[in-house]
Amino acid sequence: MPLLTLLRKVERTILVVLFLTMVALFFGSVVVREFGGTMASRFAWIEEAVRLMNLFLVFLALGLALERGKHVGITNLRDKLPEGARRWLLRGIDTVGLLFSVYVAWLGVQMVQFVLKSGQTSPTLGIPMGLIYLAPVIGFLLLALRYGLSLFGVIDRFAAQAEAE
């Protein structure tokens, strides 16, 4: 579990740093546009940077959100099932979620390779577009990890969901 605790801390730290950086950059962009005059055109890259950071912020938060029970779920049927049937349903949900997440991450890797081969770069930052497509790959791998941990009983994401309700 120390490895999982470390992963949680790293994820939270990255998310907080990304969010605060986005806020600072966007605030700076607004100030420069308001008071910078002709200098404002030099900061056009900020809009793109904030958009890309937002993309990474969303995908990197997938695993933590699942673990904390923050994903949308319909619980009416689940809550009415007897304990044995409920346990099988939850395992089925985790299995399908794990398989789907791994599949999407695999598709994402193929997309990253394809886009990197194309040589595309982002308009103002000049970052290879393939690197931007890494966000869903990383996010869905983190999601698959959480589904797997839930499937094998290492975490109880459904208890976290019940507490949130």
TrEMBL record:
Q: Which residues cross the membrane?
A: 12-32, 52-67, 88-109, 129-149
Give the UniProt keywords, A-Z: Cell inner membrane, Cell membrane, Membrane, Transmembrane, Transmembrane helix, Transport
- Its membrane topology: Multi-pass membrane protein
Signal peptide region: none
Q: Pinpoint the Tripartite ATP-independent periplasmic transporters DctQ component domain residues.
A: 22-154
Query: Which one GO biological process term can you cite for this protein?
Result: C4-dicarboxylate transport
Keyword Metal-binding in annotation: no
Select a single GO molecular function from the record's annotations and give it.
transmembrane transporter activity
Q: Does the keyword Cell inner membrane apply?
A: yes
* A UniProt-annotated Pfam family: DctQ
Question: What do the Gene Ontology cellular component annotations say?
Answer: plasma membrane
Subcellular localization: Cell inner membrane
Task: Cite the record's note on assembly.
Answer: The complex comprises the extracytoplasmic solute receptor protein and the two transmembrane proteins.
- Which protein family is it in? Belongs to the TRAP transporter small permease family.
Per its database record, what is this protein's job?
Part of the tripartite ATP-independent periplasmic (TRAP) transport system.
Q: What is this protein called?
A: TRAP transporter small permease protein
